[in-house]
Amino acid sequence: MAKLYFHYATMNAGKSTMLLQASYNYQERGMRVAVFIAAFDDRAGLGRISSRIGLSADAMPFHPGDDLFAAVTRLHAEEPIACVFVDEAQFLSEVQVWQLARIADRIGIPVMTYGLRTDFQGKLFPASQTLLAIADEMREVRTICHCGRKATMVVRLGPDGQVAHEGAQIEIGGNEKYVSLCRRHWDDAMNGPFSAEPA
User: Fold this and answer.
1) By C-alpha distance, which of 160, 137, 153 is closest to 187?
2) What stretch of H or E contains 173?
3) Annotated domain spans of the chain
4) Low-confidence ranges of the chain (pLDDT < 70)
5) pTM of the model
6) According to CATH, what is the number of the domain 4-142?
7) Which residues, listed in sequence order, are joined to residue 38 by a DSSP beta bridge?
8) Short-list 78, 41, 77, 82, CA closest to 59
9) What is the DSSP string of 68-137?
10) Which pLDDT tens digit goes with each residue over 82-134?
């Protein structure tokens, strides 16, 4: 039975690298895949996925209103699709997450999504919340904080290099804009160092 998978992590955990490797494994065996990325994430160019270690591949850009179920149905009718991959899954709409679930449930094609769980303020992205609710399998991709603990949060840096406390939930950027931290150091960065001793 095909499943909907959600691979989640903070920034710089290697999600795109994992996607590109998994996609390559299918293609190396002569199987066709469909790879999607958000149209407004054009850091590597429109419709291009790129990892920090230099791997890259073409992908189909999607917009918030696109019907991914219809798109995959068309592609699958032309030539069978063995797997669907979605990078930056936090940028999907909630409706699109359900479309991906239907691809697995109705067409029988496994769907592998890769993305962030929370934003720089520690809040779930709507698509990530829906994926956490309905995905068949969830896998955490781990990376580390500067202290060596597991990084589960991310802070956004403003133009001045200081931690941003407000702003739009979605703002495209890489290492120059986002830093992955453990929960303790994220709390320190967002709220100031914590002291358990009475003032």
Assistant:
1) 153
2) none
3) 4-142
4) 42-47, 52-54, 56, 170-176, 194-199
5) 0.83
6) 3.40.50.300
7) 62
8) 41
9) HHHHHHHHHHHS--SEEEEESGGGS-HHHHHHHHHIIIII---EEEEEESB-TTS-B-HHHHHHHHH-SE
10) 999 999 999 999 999 999 999 999 999 999 999 999 888 889 999 999 999 99
Measure the CA–CA gap between 31 and 94, rounded to whole angstroms: 29
Which tokens is 83 given?
A: 């797997």
The C-alpha atoms of residue 94 and residue 49 are separated, in whole angstroms, by 22
What pLDDT does residue 193 have?
Answer: 77
Backbone phi, psi, residue 128, to 5°: -65, -40
Tokens describing residue 168: 């739009």
Calpha distance 102→27 (Å, rounded): 23
Which sequence positions are flagged as catalytic?
A: 88
- In the block, tokens 């407004």 appear at 40
Tokens of 19: 């996607």
pLDDT of residue 195: 65
Is residue 84 within 8 A of residue 103, CB to CB? The reply is: yes
Task: For residue 157, give the 3-state DSSP assignment.
Answer: strand
**φ/ψ of residue 174, rounded to 5:** -125, -140
